[in-house]
TrEMBL record:
Biased composition (Low complexity): 1-11
Annotated region (Disordered), positions in chain: 1-27
SUPFAM superfamilies: RNI-like (SSF52047)
Main localisation: cytoplasm
Source species, domain of life: Eukaryota
Gene3D superfamilies: Ribonuclease Inhibitor (3.80.10.10)
Gene: LRRC45
Coiled-coil residue spans: 324-650
Annotated protein name in UniProt: Leucine rich repeat containing 45
Subcellular location: Cytoplasm, Cytoskeleton, Microtubule organizing center, Centrosome
Annotated organism of origin: Anser brachyrhynchus (Pink-footed goose)
One term under GO cellular component: cytosol
UniProt keywords, alphabetically: Coiled coil, Cytoplasm, Cytoskeleton
Length: 710
């Protein structure tokens, strides 16, 4: 506040009573304070007895009253005549933590040594906030002790030195001013009626230039004069913390008082602006911390989603491995079926070789019989020639023999016709058997082709499902990375906007106070909008992630359904293969029965050897064609096995690539987090630089600019 011109302040003598207020704490705090005061009283009595002096009854009574009264944190010994021994005992009890925050020693008539002992004890005290030493006629030694107290004590906020004579002794007052300049804790100083002249005011001005904590200074009723007022006015150009300076009763001109008042008003405005900027910086720091917490939450959510996706990928890998193993088992079963078919083919080939051997034996027998028949014809012709030469007597016999031979010939012809009929019947049976064999082989080939087509379709479907899952996962990872980059860019844009708002606020601090308030309102509205926008973005992102999870669960269910269908188809193929194996066994038994019938009718097929040989050659051609078809099937099976190996290797490579991509994404996330931490550190450094710049600007702005603006 500005200095006020008023009449001389009358000195108040006599005992001052301290106002009793409500209890500061609860019952437990009061009991502890009472116990501490009782211990303080006992220690005082003990120290006095140890020093060979009786304790003062007035001091003991006052300490007892303070201990009994609730809510009292004030040691009030005002208007008590304290002896040197009492001062020494109190000085030894005051260091450290005392059970009170205020000490009132006004009008106690303290001696120089007593003041020195008391203040020496207060130098290391940490609980006393207010000290009242008015009306004690302090001199050089007291001023030096006060200067030492101000240098060393870090807890006293208020110091009352009214009605002393500190300004009479310039050397002691200079030491006191040096201590005041070195102090950074004291906020209120009362130096009324201390006979301070313009030299003392100059010392005070030098101390105030160095002091950065004092807010109230009362110099009423001294002898400062014009020079002292100018010195104090000049010190206010560098001191920006003093808000109240009382200069009434010092013969200071009114223009200096007005200038001092303007400087103090400027300091007050500057303090309010500084407090507002500090509050705003605190709000911004809180907002930054909130953004940091939200970013950490987003990062943790992202890591959880990545872990879930990794688990889904591992689960899909295990499912695909199970599918591959099932397909391998199915292929092994097909291999076993093909091996059985190969064995059956080898058996049929061996049977064909035996039949060929039998045909060869039959041909040899037929040639032998032809040779015998030719020999018989020659013998008969020789006999006939001999019979012709024998004579006519045998002619009748020959005629009779000829008729008999003709009858035998008829009988033989009838037998030949019957044999031809039997051969035709057997040929029909053989043709029917050949037709059945071709039908069964065609049916087997058709079923094998259908099984291969089903297997190929299942492979293509499995490959398509794997590719779809992989593409979905890649799309989701890309979308998440894009969303992260967009969120990071939006956060950076928001930080830049906040930085621009803060810079604008810093530029407008030097302008009108009303404009600063409106800008603060705008900034708060912008922060609220940004916070709402961030919350909306977070909610949208959460909804998007929930939709992704739902899609992933649906794709997983579809994959499980595909697996079940494939298992059913494999079981059906196995059942069909078992049926085919049973049918081939039945055909093999039927072929064996036919071979037995052929063995039983070997003698009846002598005349049809050539036809049988041709038919056997045709069967051999059909069997060779079937063998080539089976070799083609073997090649297809080998190609399918190679394709399965290639697919399994490509699937493993794809899984390794995805794991590498996941590790790269994690590394990018770590780099982003490092960038965010670096940006936060830069923001903190910028905030510190901004605060330092504001302080420098506030401390370096001239008074005349502020007064001209007003």
């Amino acid at each position: 506040m500005a200095a006020r011109a008023a009449g001389p302040a009358p000195r108040k003598c006599g005992r001052r009573g301290a106002g009793r207020g409500p209890a500061a704490g609860g019952g437990g705090g009061w009991w502890r304070r009472a116990a501490a005061m009782e211990e303080f009283r006992r220690a005082y009595a003990r120290l006095c007895a140890a020093g060979g002096a009786a304790p003062q009854e007035a001091v003991l009574r006052r300490l007892r009253e303070l201990g009994e009264a609730p809510g009292r944190g004030r040691l009030d010994l005002a208007a008590q005549s304290l002896s040197l021994e009492t001062c020494g005992a109190l000085g030894r009890l005051l260091p450290g933590a005392a059970p009170f925050a205020e000490v009132a020693l006004g009008d106690c008539g303290l001696s120089e040594e007593g003041v020195k002992l008391l203040l020496h004890g207060l130098c290391s005290n940490t609980t006393v906030k207010s000290l009242d030493l008015k009306g004690n006629n302090l001199r050089t030694m007291g001023a030096e002790a006060l200067g030492k107290l101000l240098r060393q004590n870090k807890s006293i906020r208020s110091l009352i030195l009214e009605w002393n004579s500190l300004g009479v002794w310039e050397e002691g007052f200079s030491f006191f001013c040096q201590g005041l300049g070195a102090n950074n804790v004291l906020q209120r100083l009362d130096l009324r009626n201390n006979q301070i002249n313009h030299h003392g005011a100059g010392e005070l001005a030098m101390a105030l230039k160095r002091n950065a904590s004092l807010q109230e200074l009362d110099l009423r009723w001294n002898n400062i004069g014009l020079l002292g007022g100018r010195a104090l006015l000049n010190c206010l150009r560098s001191n920006k913390t003093l808000k109240r300076l009382e200069l009434a009763g010092n013969n200071v001109p009114s223009d200096i008082l007005k200038a001092v008042e303007q400087a103090l008003d400027h300091n007050q405005d500057r303090q309010t602006i500084l407090s507002e900027t500090q509050n705003r910086a605190c709000m911004l720091s809180k907002e930054i911390l909130n953004l940091k917490d939200e970013k950490t939450k987003q990062f943790l959510d992202l890591m959880d989603t990545i872990d879930k996706q990794r688990e889904e990928i591992a689960r899909s890998g295990r499912i695909s491995a199970g599918r591959v193993s099932q397909l391998q088992e199915a292929l092994k079963e097909q291999h076993s079926i093909m091996n059985s078919l190969k064995a059956k083919l080898q058996m049929t080939e061996a049977a064909l070789a035996l039949s060929e051997q039998k045909v060869h034996n039959l041909g040899e027998l037929l040639s032998a019989m032809k040779q015998e028949q030719a020999n018989m014809v020659e013998r008969h012709f020789a006999e006939l020639q001999q019979q012709k030469q024998e004579g006519a007597d045998r002619e009748g016999k020959l005629f009779r023999d000829l008729s008999a031979c003709s009858e035998k010939n008829l009988l033989l012809r009838n037998q030949v016709d019957e044999l031809e009929k039997k051969c035709k019947v057997q040929q029909d049976q053989l043709f029917q058997l050949k037709q059945d064999l071709t039908d069964t082989t065609a049916e087997l080939k058709l079923r094998a082709v259908q099984a291969e087509e089903r297997l190929e379709m299942e492979k293509r479907r499995l490959k398509q499902s794997l590719e779809d899952m992989e593409s979905l996962r890649l799309k989701e990872v890309d979308h998440m990375t894009q969303h992260m980059e967009a969120s990071e860019r939006s956060l950076q844009d928001r930080v830049q906007r906040l930085e621009a708002i803060r810079i604008a606020l810093e530029e407008e601090l030097s302008q009108v106070k009303a404009a600063a308030l409106t800008e603060r309102g705008h900034a708060e509205e912008e922060l609220i909008k940004v916070r709402n926008q961030a919350r909306l973005d977070e909610q949208q992102r959460l909804e998007h992630l929930e939709e992704k999870l739902r899609l992933m669960t649906e794709s997983r269910d579809e994959a499980q359904n595909c697996c079940l269908k494939q298992k059913q188809m494999v079981s059906e193929a196995q059942a069909k293969a078992s049926q085919l194996s049973l049918h081939t066994d039945a055909l093999r038994r039927r072929i064996e029965e036919l071979q037995q019938d052929l063995n039983s009718k070997e003698q009846e097929k002598m005349t049809e050897v050539n036809k049988v040989k041709v038919e056997l050659q045709e069967q051999i051609g059909h069997l060779q064609a079937e063998r080539t078809a089976q070799e083609g099937l073997r090649e297809k099976i080998a190609a399918l096995e190679r394709q399965l190996k290639v697919l399994s290797s490509s699937h493993r490579e794809a899984l390794l690539d995805k794991e590498g991509e996941i590790s790269v994404l994690l590394e990018k996330l770590r780099m982003r987090e490092a960038d965010i931490s670096r940006m936060r550190e830069e923001e903190a450094q910028r905030a510190n630089l901004l605060q330092n710049a504001i302080m420098a600007y506030v401390q370096g702005s001239p008074l005349r600019t502020h007064s001209s603006r007003k």
